Amino acid sequence: MTNKNKLKGTDLLPDLACFAAIFNQPYPPLSAPLAMLQARLMDGLMQFCNSSRSPSRFMLLTAQENNDYFQLIAETVKQILDASSQNVSSRHLVADIGVSTQPATNMDRASCVWQSLVEYEQLFGALRFYRDVLYLQPGLVHRANGGILIVGVRALVRQPVLWLRLKHMILQQRFDWLPENTSRPLPVAVPSIPLNLRLIVVGNRAGLADLNAIEPELTSFAMYGEFESELCIIGPDKMAKWCSWVNTLAQQHGLPLLSADAWPVLVRQAIRYSGDHYQLPLCPHWLSRRLKEAAMYYGSKHEQLTATAFTDSEQKRSWRESYLSERMQYEIVASQIMLENEGHVVGQVNALSLLDFPGHPLPFCEPSRISCVVHVGDGEINDVEHKAELGGNLHTKGMLIIQAFLMSALKLDQQLPFSASLVFEQSYGEVDGDSASLAEGVALISALADKPINQQIAVTGSVDQFGHVQPIGGVNEKIEGFFAFCQARALTGAQGVILPTANVRHLCLHDDVIEAVSEGQFSLWAVDTIDDTLEILTAMSFDNDHLPNLLAAIRARISNFYLREQKLLPWCFRWLNWFNQRARND
């Protein structure tokens, strides 16, 4: 088995040594977080909030729909609203059972009002008539008149009539009292008032796409902004800015700031969340939750949050969410899910699948057994998952790519005389994604070459038509899932996982995995091609003219098949076949 692709323990974590001096310095909270961290979004908000130069009265803002985002955006809007803008000069007067309007006497500055989920009366207000007394209850539109209203996209998508009325009033710049139920008119006539309002709609891409389906022209006349979810850490300055952002959130929630030893622990958790050594999350909701959990488990009365606080809170959270993954591991260890981690088997490989259950907070890994059988046929490679309608489009695409790669590598001048059948064993749900295409290619080549695969090693990765291994998602969870399975059956020192080299920058594994790799009890191999993968799993190269190789074994098997077939033919057909072969060689 080759060691040229084997990773060291130091490769499994981000290198934070260069930031040690940064973590030892105090960082004051940011006075204007979006101006420091979201330059593109800030530029859009500056233009939108300028009443005289804003190109539109509508803005679409891609961000999560939770209060942390709404509050941050609203506070920024309040800071940059034009100080000279004033409320519209009109208001309603209720006299007896009649309503009139008169110029407003107050000259307040423009305001910013936000609400993630709104109903009709919350947005437009309500007109009530009780015992000959008329009551007008103002809505968010009245409170934000002259300024900016921020709402979540889900409320508008679920209530199309609400969106259409709001859009019409903003464009007409008039507010009209209308009944929520058109079959029951208002008890009295209420005159309309001027409406000077701009609207920011906040939601994720899917929600904004749904709104665009209701209003196809929305993207053409609305401004666009996006809350960037991550900060690229390319130097100490960026890390210092991120630390200040974390302290800003801690101060907003009345939590202690972080001690010097807490920063590396939080950064590791953040990198695992973002999935990249060079990207740290800016999500205020996720960061605030980490800070609150650390303060809760360590005590919010302490002067600082330490590394122990973040480590303990993370371990507790992982334990709370681990029931499903532990049950799955139990089923494997109890041999209810058939999976091998010892010996060598032809046409069988351990793949790593990521399970994402609705309602469960995080996906987790399920080791899977992919098997392939080969028999005499017409060259068709059957994807059982696809034929059983359990394979998604991306999985089918990965299978077709593997077939194309193999046919190109064999360079056959006639049809492949074998058929193959590939399947995820004991899979009872839909399989999608191309992260198993590398494992499926290995199983197919092993079955065709009749060479066994080491069952102590699992494989994850996708491939292209040229055999290059491409990165996949969830690499940390997949490695840790197979490690837990091997650990439950006792580590042998020969077990491990093969992963794409491009995924090394995403590694941020748990301490028990790092310790096992450092001590040689578990191994990780980073590969660039399917050739490297096959050499590790079968101890044979895929295509090497100077050594026995798998491609030669497949060609020899094909040649032996045709030789047997020729012996069964009458002598005249054998002579014709020999003549055709000589002609092709010439």
Description of the structure:
- 42% of the residues lie in helices and 19% in strands.
- The model has no long low-confidence stretch (mean pLDDT 85).
- The longest helix has 18 residues, at 393-410.
- A seven-stranded mixed beta sheet has the order 19-20-18-17-22-25-26, with helices on both faces.
- With 586 residues, it is α/β, with parallel strands linked by helices.
- It is globular and about 100 Å long.
- The chain starts with 19 loop residues before the first helix and ends with a helix.
Task: Summarize the model shown.
The chain has 586 residues and is of the alpha/beta class. Helices cover 42% and strands 19% of the residues.
Topology:
Elements: H1 20-23, H2 33-37, H3 39-49, E1 58-62, H4 67-80, E2 91-95, E3 98-102, E4 112-115, H5 120-124, E5 126-130, E6 133-137, H6 140-143, E7 148-152, H7 153-158, H8 160-172, E8 174-175, E9 193-194, E10 198-203, H9 205-214, H10 218-221, E11 223-226, E12 230-232, H11 236-252, E13 257-258, H12 262-274, E14 279-281, H13 284-298, E15 304-305, H14 307-320, H15 323-333, E16 344-346, E17 348-355, E18 364-376, E19 381-383, H16 384-387, H17 393-410, E20 418-424, H18 437-449, E21 452-454, E22 457-459, E23 462-463, E24 469-470, H19 475-488, E25 496-500, H20 511-518, E26 523-527, H21 530-538, H22 550-567, H23 571-585
Parallel strand pairs: 1-10, 1-11, 4-7, 7-10, 13-15, 17-22, 19-20, 22-25, 25-26
Antiparallel strand pairs: 2-3, 5-6, 8-9, 12-14, 16-21, 17-18, 18-20, 23-24
Helix pairs in contact: 12-14, 13-14, 15-19, 17-18, 18-21, 18-22
